[in-house]
Design goal:
The chain has 431 residues and is α/β, with parallel strands linked by helices. It has 2 domains: 212 residues, no CATH class; 194 residues, no CATH class. The chain is built from 8 helices and 24 strands. The strands form 7 sheets. A 6-stranded mixed beta sheet has the order 15-16-14-17-18-21, sandwiched between helices. It has a 4-stranded mixed beta sheet with strand order 8-9-1-13. The chain has a 4-stranded mixed beta sheet with strand order 5-12-10-7.
Amino acid sequence: MKLDLEMLDIKDVRFGKETAVREKVLSVNRSELEDLLQGDKRFSQVNVELARPGEKVRIVHVAEVIEPRAKRGGDATDFPGALGRPGPVGTGSTTVLRGAAVVLSEYVEGPEYPRDPNGEIVDMAGPGAEIGLYGKTQNVVLLPYPAAGISRQDYQMAVKTAGLKAAVYLAKAGQTREPDETVTYELPSPGTNGKSPEGLPRVAYIFTVMATQHGIITGEPVLYGGNVNKAIPTILHPNEILDGALLSPYRAWGMETYVIQNNPVIEELFRGHGRDLCFVGVVVTIAFDNQIENERAAVMASNLAKWALGAEGVVLTKSGGGAPEVPLARTAQRCEEAGMKTALALWHIPADLTDVSFGGITLFNLPGVDAIVSMGMPQQKLLLPAVEKIIGKPVMLPGEPPVDGEIERMVRWIRGAQDQVGFSRLTAVQY
């Protein structure tokens, strides 16, 4: 399977008479994009704003971030199943607007977030922009307003669909341009022969893509347009994940679709393929909210890695908060028992959510599961300076400082500051 990502570098975004890419500038026809998205009757209206790095802008209630991408060719499918018919991805050519992002800001009536009434935010300047991914991207921000009588879940599904439509619309505008770079991802059939012809260790990736601990949105398109809340472990070619087959669940914690499209674990395994290791494929799985289903998933995921992919080593990452650490570790233990070496990457939940000075905890202690990469704790606090403009609908609570003023926020409330697969700028140093 061979995939070419044709990268167009975007250094600025502006409103213009037409949507186009010229000299690394993305111009957006505002009314055309708004009209496209307002065709969804689940919205009363959709507004479009722009946010650029360095501007004193704060985006509130950020629900999702998507990189603008669009397939080339008449038969190709963009975000299969989520937009139109299910169809194959992972091969052919895909246009990518590298450096741009579609940011979705949802409408919220009241304080739905008990720890932060303005949800997850993106700052375009200051320390929040420095540590976050999306303070450095050229952002097209969608502000969809729900139609009267629409349910919360239907509205959230519509918001996701609007983001995908906008991502394709913007990327298609660049398809008349020559790419600045073409990056090729090519991997043969994952289970070929069970041995690496180069004599290199065969490595698989077990990717937990959803945790059901906080509920799910029924019918949400996650994998090829379908929900995965009851899915069994499944083998995917890594190109499928990079090319739009897998989307972030709406309630994912620290894993936007943008991050899945640029999954750094997959990128690193591709970089090492043929040099340090033989990358044999990906097993996607779920962290359930009960022991029986988690045991089943651990057995099936390890068996797929061992007997279908012929893996000798496995890298594992999780989704969700603290509880999904346990099924992650149990899957790793099953892999170790089957003779595969494992390495886990995860962030840690503090022992005391109100005082992070107590440090983080690990919710498991299992024989053989002893190679763990810590990605820190998402509860550290950061002081953010005042801004000149808010994008989104702020929620003002009595006694709380205005959201456009100087505010203190936990890192977990800054989109792109930390994520579940290591796409982060934060490091820790012990003196």
